[in-house]
């Protein structure tokens, strides 16, 4: 994503385009409902004026019929208000949901073309989060702008024109109401931002300590460690500090807000006095006095809600620029092609560095994986095993060198072409909160095949676990949870269900005990006959079944051979195996 600043007009233009595309009817409905409300508001003012003026005339001896018309008019307006509000409410809700739904769709669609490496760059991740919050909040920001343009501004403008037509000096009244109220509301909103700015950090800290005490994921550990008192103390201290800062910040803010309110009240009083003077000197009628008095509170409410909503709206709209940047970023989708996964895979002088990382995670790797054979990758933590598997699969493009499948270098091709025919079980595999079946079938959604076969292969027996294929694997959604080992088997079953000629397993058995792990790999070997299999393990008991083993150290391959060859070498592999031998002694 580029970091160029984007002009407001461009962002707004795009936002209008997206929300229009999401639902033209809703857009039109929002404009119409706003205009409708502003018209009602204006007619209400006119009716109030007429009613009061005519009432005065009636008091002075005119016929009573004179007030029927304005009363009926006002009644009609009052009756139409709930309808208008309902229309406005529906239009606003739809406008936001439909707009945000469409923008999320664009965002999600674009995400599917992203490269895995883009999620390893913290600035990029931050920008993606902003893009996502833009798609959530921006339509609601635009809704406020539409409301300002088609409700507030027409209302105030029509009132202004109406008053000027009666007497130009009345503009002064509107200005006297408008400017102080606008300033007061702006300051009020600024102060509440300032308050959140000051207090936010302290509040989050206090809430975090509370979470350590009462939330489900912390409870076990806090209970076992006997840390309740510790967190209670942290919470109490933080809460005390919070209260202290809260009161002093609030006091400071209140002081200035009281002064502002006082000034505002003085302004209001002067307007009132000015109006009384106008009535007294015959510039305006009693009716107009009443109408203006009534409209003051209305304008105040409008200004308040507009200014209050504007802060959040602007943040949402400005975050849309991240979404636009993402969508405009002409990402190279890559070519489509059939990349053979049943041929030799070659890594030619491959190096790889994570974004913003200091050194290389992989260094000058040369490796040929023969089709249909199994390769075990071993080595200490952080030696580059997981990274190597991701580069082999094409999830990360090498920063130097190339990965070649058969005779095709992998990097110019699309995600779909690259990953077709590859199955992977990651070290940090995902526990989807879906049913057992969906957890497996998702790796091959167009396939109708039952999941029993895959479950059998990983030795999962559903009745034994007291669950069914449609049981949701999450307590949160009314289902049941599994143990770590069982989850790993489900993840492997998912990998097996996907059609593949290459399967990559990154420590898929860490939660299973070492002896059982050897069994899983043994059955794995049976299943994957004729397929290329790359697996990472830090337990050397399982490596015997591999046709070939490589030992990684600091991003380099330091030993390479069969189990026996490496044993005879008496090098790193031998040492690692010796140190782990006791795991396998019964
Ligand atoms: P292994 O799987 O052998 O434990 P990894 O391949 O996960 O090792 O990590 C190799 C090296 O790359 C380590 O030094 C690790 O700190 C670094 N590394 C891993 N993931 C990232 C990442 N997302 N961003 C930056 N560095 C990373
Ligand atoms: Mg790893």
Summarize the helices and strands and which ones pair or pack.
Blueprint: H1 8-22, H2 24-59, H3 68-111, H4 122-166, H5 171-214, H6 216-224, H7 228-280, H8 286-328, E1 345-352, E2 362-369, E3 374-379, H9 385-393, E4 400-405, E5 408-409, H10 415-419, E6 422-425, H11 436-441, H12 452-457, H13 462-465, H14 484-497, E7 502-506, H15 514-527, E8 532-536, E9 548-553, E10 556-561, H16 563-569, H17 572-580
Parallel strand pairs: 3-8, 3-9, 6-7, 7-8
Antiparallel strand pairs: 1-2, 1-4, 4-5, 9-10
Helix pairs in contact: 1-2, 1-3, 1-8, 2-3, 2-4, 2-8, 3-4, 4-8, 5-6, 5-7, 5-8
How much helix, percentage-wise, in residues? Answer: 55-70%
Main sheet attributes: strand count, strand direction, barrel closure? 6 strands, mixed
Shape: elongated
CATH topology description of one domain: ABC transporter transmembrane region fold
- The CATH architecture category of one domain equals Up-down Bundle
Question: What is the CA-based Rg, rounded?
Answer: 35 Å
Supply the CATH class of one domain.
Answer: Mainly Alpha
Structural class: alpha/beta
Strand order of the largest sheet: 6-7-8-3-9-10
List all distinct small molecules, including ions and cofactors, that are bound in this structure: adenosine-5'-diphosphate, magnesium ion
Helical run tally: 17
Q: Quote the distance from N terminus to C terminus.
A: 56 Å
Which blocks of ≥5 consecutive residues have pLDDT under 50? none
Order of secondary-structure elements? HHHHHHHHEEEHEEHEHHHHEHEEEHH
Mean pLDDT: 88
Find the CATH superfamily of one domain: ABC transporter type 1, transmembrane domain
Tell how many strands the DSSP assignment holds.
10
> In percent, how much strand structure appears in the residues?
5-15%
């Amino acid at each position: 994503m580029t970091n160029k600043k984007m002009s407001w007009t461009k962002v707004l233009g795009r936002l209008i385009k997206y929300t229009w595309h999401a639902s033209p009817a809703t857009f039109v409905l929002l404009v119409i409902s706003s205009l409708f409300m502003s018209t009602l508001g204006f007619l209400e003012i006119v009716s109030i004026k007429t009613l009061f003026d005519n009432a005065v005339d009636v008091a002075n001896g005119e016929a009573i019929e004179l007030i029927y018309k304005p009363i009926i008019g006002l009644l009609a307006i009052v009756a139409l208000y709930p309808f208008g509000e309902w229309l406005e409410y529906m239009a606003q809700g739809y406008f936001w949901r439909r707009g945000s739904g469409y923008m999320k769709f664009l965002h999600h669609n674009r995400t599917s073309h992203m490269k895995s490496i883009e999620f390893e760059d913290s600035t990029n991740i931050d920008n993606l989060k902003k893009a996502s919050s833009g798609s959530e909040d921006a339509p609601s920001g635009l809704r406020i702008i539409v409301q300002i343009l088609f409700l507030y501004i027409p209302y105030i403008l029509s009132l202004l024109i109406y008053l000027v037509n009666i007497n130009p000096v009345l503009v002064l009244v509107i200005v006297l109401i408008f400017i102080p109220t606008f300033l007061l509301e702006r300051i009020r909103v600024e102060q509440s931002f300032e308050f959140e700015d000051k207090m936010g950090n302290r509040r989050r800290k206090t809430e975090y300590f509370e979470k350590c005490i009462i939330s489900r994921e912390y409870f076990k550990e806090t209970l076992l460690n006997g840390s309740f008192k510790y967190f209670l103390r942290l919470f109490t201290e933080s809460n005390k500090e919070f209260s202290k800062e809260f009161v002093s910040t609030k006091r400071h803010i209140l002081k200035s807000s009281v002064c502002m309110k006082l000034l505002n009240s003085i302004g209001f009083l002067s307007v009132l006095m000015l109006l009384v003077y106008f009535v007294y000197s015959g510039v305006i009628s009693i009716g107009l006095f009443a109408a203006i008095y009534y409209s003051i509170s209305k304008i105040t409410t409008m200004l308040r809600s507009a200014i209050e909503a504007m802060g959040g709206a602007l943040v949402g709209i400005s975050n849309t620029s991240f979404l636009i940047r993402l969508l405009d970023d002409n990402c190279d989708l890559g070519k489509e092609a059939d990349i053979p996964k049943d041929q030799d895979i070659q890594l030619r002088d491959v190096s790889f560095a994570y974004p913003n990382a200091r050194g290389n995670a992989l260094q000058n790797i040369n490796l040929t994986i023969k089709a249909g054979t199994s390769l075990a990758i071993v080595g200490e933590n952080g030696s580059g095993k997981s990274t190597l598997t991701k580069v082999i699969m094409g999830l990360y493009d090498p920063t130097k060198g190339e990965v070649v499948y058969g005779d095709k270098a992998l990097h110019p091709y699309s995600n779909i072409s690259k990953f077709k025919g590859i199955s992977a079980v990651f070290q940090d595999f995902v526990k989807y909160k879906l049913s057992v079946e969906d957890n497996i079938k998702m790796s091959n959604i167009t396939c109708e095949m039952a999941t029993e076969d895959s479950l059998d292969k990983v030795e999962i027996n559903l009745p034994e676990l007291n669950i069914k294929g449609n049981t949701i694997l999450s307590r949160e959604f009314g289902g049941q949870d599994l143990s770590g080992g069982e989850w790993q088997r489900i993840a492997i079953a998912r990998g097996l269900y996907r059609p593949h000629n290459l399967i990559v397993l990154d420590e898929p058995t860490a939660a299973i005990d070492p002896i059982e792990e050897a069994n899983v790999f043994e059955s794995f070997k049976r299943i994957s006959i004729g397929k290329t299999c790359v697996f990472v393990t830090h337990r050397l008991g399982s490596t015997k079944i591999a046709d070939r083993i490589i030992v990684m150290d600091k991003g380099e391959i330091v030993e390479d051979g069969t189990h026996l060859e490496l044993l005879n070498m008496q090098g790193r592999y031998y040492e690692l195996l010796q140190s782990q031998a006791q795991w396998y002694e019964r």
